[in-house]
Write a structure and sequence with these properties.
single chain; mainly alpha; 1 helix; rod-shaped; Biogenesis of lysosome-related organelles complex 1 subunit 1; BLOC1S1
Length: about 120
């Protein structure tokens, strides 16, 4: 009777050990599945962040190139405006010179006419 109790006890212990081993293996498999699912979920986020960062870098580079090109174009526009202003100043100078020459010519013409009239009256 005592030996049968010991045998029953050992058999129940063996069954419990097998159940515990099976549950441990199931728990390990479930933990591995959970870990894989979490890593996959995190990797998706990391991959998306990496792609976003890559896109931002490309857009920042494009923006820098556009800003540089705009600065060059603005410099060219300013140079054109300065050249135009200089040309306008030169035209103004030529106009003033022409008016001055016209006034001088009128003075000379008047002086010559006066001299001619005086010469005509004296002869």
């Amino acid at each position: 009777m005592l030996s049968s109790l010991v045998k029953d006890h050992q058999q129940r212990q063996q069954v419990r050990r097998e159940e515990q081993e099976k549950k441990r293996k199931d728990a390990i498999i479930a933990a591995n599945n959970l870990t894989s699912a979490l890593v996959d979920h995190l990797n998706v986020g990391v991959a998306q962040a990496y792609l976003n960062q890559k896109r931002l870098d490309a857009e920042a580079k494009q923006l820098h190139m556009n800003a540089t090109q705009f600065a060059k174009q603005t410099t060219q526009w300013l140079q054109l405006v300065d050249n135009f202003n200089q040309s306008l100043k030169e035209l103004g100078d030529v106009e003033n010179w022409a008016k001055s020459m016209e006034a001088d010519m009128r003075t000379i013409s008047s002086a010559l006419e006066y001299a001619y009239k005086v010469g005509q009256e004296g002869s």
